[in-house]
From TrEMBL:
Documented EC number(s): 2.2.1.10
Species this protein is from: Blautia hansenii DSM 20583
InterPro entries named among the record's database cross-references: Aldolase_TIM (IPR013785), DeoC/FbaB/LacD_aldolase (IPR002915), DeoC/FbaB_aldolase (IPR050456), FbaB-like (IPR041720)
PANTHER family the record matches: 3-HYDROXY-5-PHOSPHONOOXYPENTANE-2,4-DIONE THIOLASE (PTHR47916:SF1), FRUCTOSE-BISPHOSPHATE ALDOLASE CLASS 1 (PTHR47916)
Signal sequence, renumbered to the chain: none
An example Gene Ontology molecular-function term: fructose-bisphosphate aldolase activity
Active site: residue positions: Y148 (proton donor), K181 (schiff-base intermediate with dihydroxyacetone-p)
This protein's record includes keyword Transferase: yes
Class in the EC hierarchy, top level: transferase
Assigned keywords, A-Z: Transferase
Entry protein name: 2-amino-3,7-dideoxy-D-threo-hept-6-ulosonate synthase
């Protein structure tokens, strides 16, 4: 019965038309500091704009859910409650600060926790994931990983190598996670190699991309990732720092769920930015 509960919650995270997942995350303050995260200074305003674009889910911490999610209870948008994070002073070690029981009490559809692989603290992080994974199985709660090859042994220029990304996603799968968020390798051919390293039932989603510098880069990465078998996105910084957050969420949704090309998405984005008729999409 617990596994049925997990299946029910996972189904809420995925669009039935595309079989893809689109989540937007606003959990960055603990890990990166709040001062540089200008798009999240007004956290309620950021959430309001994102919700208007109708993603499938949003990732946030317990405290933000408690204080900001009330207007959107019953909206059909799932909450993925983040229960761990790293910090500016410990960037390779995710520490657990939340719990599965609290997320269940608050109506979240999944919990998410992270790890930085191939570094000094991998063992401790994997031990924590294993414990939480077992408890999630017993409670019927999906577990989403934010797993990146950013440990001390990985040079900066190898953080997007397909071998290191494949290690992240395979580790998440072997640890019993249900979905893993990780970095896009940079091209569809190498990302397809990553996808092939886990069972077809295991969902890989990508982050917004540290290497994306322009809107075109961002949209093209999203289109390429969907085409090579990636199961969705969990994006943050580029979205809520964009000049028209709601319009960008809608344009991304049309790439992910409606199969829009980059050209079609840019045309839609321009129209939305001009007309502000978000509710029609």
């Amino acid at each position: 019965m617990a596994m049925m509960g997990k299946d029910v919650r996972l189904a809420r995270l995925v669009n039935p038309k595309s079989n893809k997942m689109m989540a937007i995350t606003v959990d960055h303050a603990i890990s990166r500091g709040i001062a540089p995260m200008t798009g999240l200074h007004d956290i309620q305003g950021a959430i309001d704009k994102i919700v208007a674009g109708k993603p499938d889910a949003m990732t946030m911490t317990k405290g933000i859910q408690e204080r900001c999610w009330g207007p959107y209870v019953g909206s059909g948008i799932s909450v993925l409650q983040k229960i761990s994070n790293y910090s500016p002073t410990a960037p390779t070690n995710d520490i657990v600060f939340g719990c599965v029981d609290a997320a269940i009490r608050m109506g979240a559809d999944a919990v998410s926790m992270g790890a930085m692989t191939l570094g000094d603290f991998q063992n401790e992080q994997f031990e924590r994931i294993g414990e939480v994974s077992d408890y999630c199985d017993r409670m019927g709660m999906p577990l989403i990983g934010h797993i990146y090859p950013k440990g001390e042994s990985v040079p900066t220029d190898e953080r997007t190598s397909w071998e290191n990304i494949a290690y992240c996603v395979r580790s998440a799968c072997e640890l019993g996670m249900d979905v893993v968020k990780t970095t896009y390798t940079g091209d569809p051919e190498s990302m397809a190699k990553v996808v092939a390293c886990v069972p077809s039932s295991f969902r890989i989603v990508i982050q917004g991309g540290d290497s994306c510098k322009t809107l075109d880069d961002y949209l093209q990465m999203t289109r390429d990732a969907m085409d090579c078998g990636v199961g969705g996105v969990t994006m943050g910084r580029f979205v809520w720092d964009y000049k028209d957050v709601t319009a960008l969420v809608i344009a991304l949704r049309y790439i992910i769920h409606e199969g829009y090309s980059v050209k079609e998405a840019k045309e839609l984005l321009a129209q939305l930015e001009n007309d502000k008729n978000y509710e029609q999409f």
